[in-house]
Amino acid sequence: MIKVLHVLSGRVSFLNHEGESASVDALSTALKKKNVDVRIVMPKYQEIPETINKKIKWQERIHVPMRWRNQYYQYCGVEHMVHENVPFYFLSNKWYFNRSGFCGFQDDAERFAFFNKAVLEMLPFIDFQPDVIHCHDWQTGMVPALHKIIYQNNAYYRHMKTVFTIHDLKEQGCFPPNVLQEYFDLGAEHLTPEGLEFYGKVNYLKGGINYSDQITTVSPDYAQKIQSPDHGEGLDGLLRHQCHKLKGVLNGFEWDQCSDTYLKIYRNFHREANLLPSTANYNT
Description:
By secondary structure, the protein is of the alpha/beta class. The protein is 33% helix and 23% strand.
């Protein structure tokens, strides 16, 4: 069975039934029907309704390495529930997420640095070793970067692959260069055009583009448009350079067809890692 973890952060799926959240919810449900062990992780926002909160159960307490203000570890609660047959994990930290709203705060660089690191840190504690970590938009873009630069050196994470889906290229998560050292403990060698640098800043979305194993967008048409100067938001040259791993997957009502496309991507990762033989029966 293929194991997939969706990392969702920009919106709360229980409150928003459009765009990114609807795509992830519908895709996860369709993949579940195809015998994929698919799970979702997201921050535990204040806006999660009480009807959902009542179903969420405490699972684990972990500490996330952060260099902020010389506090090398920050508390993170790992909570869990099953919603419409899909397991959800919630990463809780009152300082970062117990506030009104999801994004647009002055400390977003720190908030989502914490979340991206917490996603990878939690995996050994929940006894879930995904084959694919599937990330969505800039708020999760540093997961592929951290995985490739740091975590892949650990045997536990070595065979994991990452997929990064661009829902909205306009929102990129650009922050001052000091966040690289302060929040990620990464050196200046990663602040390059081939890494995370974008006009002198750290670009979280660029982390997803450069370090993921596969990039997808919400449609084949959008995948082509963002490779042009008119729609590339300054990243069109990079996307043309990375076009070998860029694929447009049409979101909409044909979720079974959409999930089939992602299954092909996930299965290719299996073959590359020699986790499954090329003649394997993927329906079992």
